[in-house]
Amino acid sequence: MQIHIKSDGLPIYQQIADQIRHRIIARQLEVGNEMPSIRNLAQLLRVNPNTIARAYRELELEGLLEKRRTKGTFVASHKSNRSLKERIERLQPHLDAVIIYASQLGFSKEELVDQIKARDSIIHQNRSATEEGLS
Amino acid sequence: MSHLTGSNLAVEVSNLQRTFRGKTALSGVNLEIPRGTIQGLVGLNGAGKTTLIRHLIGSLQAQSGGVRVLGHDPVRDPEGVLKQIGYMTEEDSLPKWMRVGELIDFCRGIYPTWDDRYAAELSEMFSLSKKTKLSGLSKGQRARVGLLVAIAHRPLVLILDEPSSGLDPIARSDILEAVIRTISDEGRTVLFSSHLLDEVDRVCDHIALLHDGRIIDSLRPDDREQRFLELTYLSSETWFPPESTERDTRSPYCFGWKRSGKEWTTVLSGANDQEPPTFENAQLIAQGPVSLQRWFEASVTESPSTKMNQVQDTNEAADD
Is the domain covering A12-75 a CATH 1.10.10.10 domain? Predict the structure, then answer.
């Protein structure tokens, strides 16, 4: 698994969790896929094994990964275990960035919402297309 | 095995003092490295990192204070310590007149725990030929030989003193991989001294910052987001941040002020759930995580008035 790590201050476990999450949500990693062991991924990325363990733990909390005793870590059928408040807090910085950029580019609030809806349907279309292609 | 019993600490340095010709090199250094962890050691040139490491490998005796490696005093009991240590330094100090195979055989004779299979595996991984003279190898290949002889006896403690300086990215990556492999081997411990902060950030469990012979801060990379926040304020050209007061670790304080035009950034310590401070005539415009680089810079920078010009220069140079 290729994961890119930047040194801009965002904690490394979070960068790793973000990239794995993205793959799961975009269905590049399928439900039931086995994740690399902590040890292997640590060696591959040259990252402290505890950092990988923490990234996996975060994703387990989100319900994206599940640990099966003695068998390893697998992609779970995702349900978020986080509270609404927590989910809003996570989303907020990304929303802020989009809103600021959109207003700078001259989009009105309504236009931005339309753009979000349009992208959302494209992403979901792609997703079902991948699913059909794979099945 | 006696070295596996007793203390949970692989390295224990307590109140270590060292002066060279009246000049203080280390002062009141305390460092505890739990077994099975990777300890980073960072600091400016001349901060005392190599002096500290030389105490651990028994080449310097403590003038006062205590040094224990795997429970032994490295100076009084070199037998008990050195065979369990792997050591690699930035200096290109291997005997260049030797062939790779001769050096490997030599080290094999010294260390009772030498692992032939591991040595062969590393030789192959690094594409090393036993017949090549060390003088005929590139710097990167010689560093790999140095790494091989530092780890093929599967040391309980691996000490790396600036192992990556001046090496190409692939050689550096090989060194990092060896560090991770060493730690994945149950209970083994690594001390990693380096100027390459992003590497330190990736591999270490704990990072100690040595400055003017003292450990001035110590952190876990994962704790950084909880302990520190970088704040950016917008103000007028004539605005200056308030004089920094004596550091109080209990309450939040700002340090490492840095200016770029009308914008000032600072590191807020003790940021945990605190509201960022407000200043007259300065507006908070951004806040975000602190990189290890920023923490380092802020921690070793003195008051803004004395350092401002230099910091401003480096800041501009680093912008691209």
Answer: yes
